[in-house]
Amino acid sequence: MNTSSVAKQLGVSSSTVKRWVKQLKLNLEKNEMGHFTYRQEDVDLLMTYKEQQNEALLVYNEIAAGKDYLRKGAVHTSIVDENTVLLNRIKCLESIVQSKADQVVEYQILQHRREMEEMQATLEKLEEKIRLLEEQQEHPSSLITPSEQSINIKPRKKKKLNILQSVFRSSTQHSS
């Protein structure tokens, strides 16, 4: 069946039928000329849609007139299919987001591992320096040659004596 014969059967214009096909997102076959071909199921669906349009118009008129009305509704297969498509799309997007989140966490873990390895290397270097300093403190004479020992020790003793002498001198001077 073509668009004009469906329009006559429904009692509407051909452009109205085309608009409804677009609104309902009907997947119609096309002939060799590129025109829609309608099956009886498609015509029945369009007839139901027309009836619902008329009911909606009646309800609108009742609302406009201030009358109470009972709301009626029907579910179209195209709406159900659209909801299914949307739900599938949401699931797909959720899985993509989860995958990206997993990649971010994996990257962060690798980054933390590198940082920990760097800290471990730094800690080992510090431990080695501490060990060397402790060895120097335990055996200071082994690290200094005998000539350095004599040079370093003599001025220290003189300085200590000089400091002690100056303290005693100042205390004796103040007391007299």
Overall description:
This protein has 176 residues and is an all-alpha fold. It is 80% helix and 2% strand. The protein is built from 6 helices and 2 strands, in the order H-H-E-E-H-H-H-H. The chain has a two-stranded antiparallel ribbon with strand order 1-2. Strand 1 and strand 2 form a beta hairpin.
Task: List its traits.
mainly alpha; 176 residues; two-stranded antiparallel ribbon; 2 strands
Kindly summarize this structure in a few lines.
By secondary structure, the chain is an all-alpha fold. It has helices at 3-10, 14-24, 40-65, 77-138, 140-143, 146-175; strands spanning 29-30, 36-37.
Low-confidence stretches: 149-155
Structural class: mainly alpha
Radius of gyration: 48 Å
Q: Classify the beta-strand content into a percent band.
A: under 5%
Q: Provide the helix percentage.
A: over 70%
Strand order of the largest sheet: 1-2
C-alpha termini separation: 135 Å
How many strands appear in the DSSP assignment?
A: 2
Topology:
Layout: H1 3-10, H2 14-24, E1 29-30, E2 36-37, H3 40-65, H4 77-138, H5 140-143, H6 146-175
Antiparallel strand pairs: 1-2
Helix pairs in contact: 1-2
